[in-house]
Amino acid sequence: QVQLVESGGGLVQAGGSLRLSCVVSGGTFSKYYMGWFRQDPGKDREFVATINLDGLTTYYPGSGKGRFTISRDNAKNTVSLLMDGLKPEDTGVYYCAAGRRMDFTSGVDYWGQGTQVTVSS
Q1: What is the pLDDT of residues 60-115, one digit of tens each?
Q2: CA-based Rg of the chain, rounded to a whole angstrom?
Q3: What is the DSSP letter of 64?
């Protein structure tokens, strides 16, 4: 059974930084495209960042472009999201995701449990 466990969320002031981490166990990490999604209460999950299998290609479809950096360490089964220049609108629950396509158009195979990020103004 594949499990994803996030950590690193918390409360930060606007303009600050946070690094989220997600450790994957129970599967072959290097076979999965990895991504991060954010969910605000009452809204759908928003696609924040994604990274390909070898970590050399990344994509930021949302407002995090230019401020967020996704990375992965296949030796440690870990994917991270470094968030700089945080804004109050970045507040939400951040979910780690594993899938079979970098754009996740075929869906998400596995979700983490989520970690809360709160950015105060």
Answers
A1: 998 899 999 999 999 999 999 999 999 999 999 999 999 999 999 999 999 999 99
A2: 13
A3: T
